[in-house]
């Protein structure tokens, strides 16, 4: 046996084995680095989408702030004028009552006949009943417009820079529902089951975006004859929980794992950007919260949002 040749071959095999191990190790490291880069790229893509959405919301906010300001001024003096008009009408009706009571005291038959005929022709009895109702209805309409404008300001917090504050999530949900009322009123009935939830530390305009995206998606998932959207809130330990449920079409199991991916949408081309839920996920994640979804085809969908009542010190305002 050629011992020197055997030793040489063994050394070669050992060196080769080491190279293979090193290559395997390098391959594993490269695979990990690639996965990390892929994850980082996805985060950058989501951050870019959120930045674009934030700029879009800021532009909309500036426009809405101007519109709200312009609408508030005329609404203010119209409501004031209606109050004055009501006072004047009360005085006119009082005087009219005096005239009607004095009809029997008028000696001239022609004058009495003319007064009665004019009263009948002008339908004074109907006007006395109808005018207060018209004024009250107009006042109610103006009050609704004022509430919508205030809700719009609350929705986007247009008069301040977004910052962390303790806010009431019920106020945020209510203002969101008023802003998107036209989008959902013919599609679904909204049922609110608010629990006793304390104010939470949050950026409420951002949470309003989350509520808006989920509720509008729920409304769009309704059958033609309409459905129900239930919004339930409660506290769970140190967290506030918001559950938004619908009895719409539901989400397939294959789509369920992708609904938070940027640009993924089940809507027809041109009907959705696929950004709403990915932005919602990013907002809830920035609030140190969780958002999960349960759904079944033909049964409906429930989004469960869990938010800490108080943020860690890094996010304190």
UniProtKB/TrEMBL annotation:
> Which positions carry the signal peptide feature in this UniProt record?
none
Name it: histidine kinase
PROSITE patterns given in the database record: HIS_KIN
- Enzyme class, spelled out: transferase
Q: List, for all copies, the residue spans of the domain called Histidine kinase.
A: 66-311
Entry-linked Pfam families = HATPase_c
Could you tell me what reaction this enzyme catalyses?
Answer: ATP + protein L-histidine = ADP + protein N-phospho-L-histidine
Its keywords, alphabetically, are: Phosphoprotein
List the EC numbers from the record. 2.7.13.3
């Amino acid at each position: 046996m050629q011992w020197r040749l055997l030793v040489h071959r063994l050394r070669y095999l050992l060196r080769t084995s080491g190279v293979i191990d090193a290559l395997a190790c390098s391959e594993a490291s490269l695979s990990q680095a690639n996965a990390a880069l892929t994850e980082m790229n996805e985060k950058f893509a989501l951050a870019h989408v959120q930045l674009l959405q934030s700029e879009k919301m800021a532009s909309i906010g500036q426009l809405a702030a101007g519109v709200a300001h312009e609408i508030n001024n005329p609404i203010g003096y119209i409501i004031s004028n209606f109050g004055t008009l009501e006072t004047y009408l009360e005085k006119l009706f009082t005087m009219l009552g005096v005239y009607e009571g004095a009809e029997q005291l008028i000696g001239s038959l022609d004058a009495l006949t003319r007064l009665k005929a004019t009263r009948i022709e002008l339908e004074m009895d109907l006007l006395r009943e109808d005018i207060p109702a018209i004024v009250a209805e107009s006042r109610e309409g103006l009050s609704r417009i004022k509430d919508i404008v205030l809700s719009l300001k609350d929705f986007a917090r247009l008069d301040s820079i977004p910052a962390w504050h303790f806010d009431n999530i019920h106020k945020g949900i209510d203002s969101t529902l008023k802003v998107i009322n036209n989008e959902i009123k013919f599609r679904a009935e909204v049922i609110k089951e608010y629990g006793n939830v304390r104010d939470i530390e949050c950026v409420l305009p951002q949470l309003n975006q989350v509520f808006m995206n989920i509720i509008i998606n729920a409304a769009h998932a309704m059958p033609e004859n309409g459905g129900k959207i239930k919004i339930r809130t409660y506290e769970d330990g140190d967290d506030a929980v918001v559950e938004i449920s619908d009895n719409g079409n539901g989400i397939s199991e294959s789509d369920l794992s992708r609904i938070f991916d940027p640009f993924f949408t089940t809507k027809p081309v041109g009907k959705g950007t696929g950004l709403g839920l990915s932005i919602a996920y990013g907002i809830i994640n920035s609030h140190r919260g969780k958002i999960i979804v349960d759904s079944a085809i033909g049964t409906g969908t429930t989004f469960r949002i869990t938010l800490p009542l108080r943020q860690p010190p890094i996010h304190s305002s």
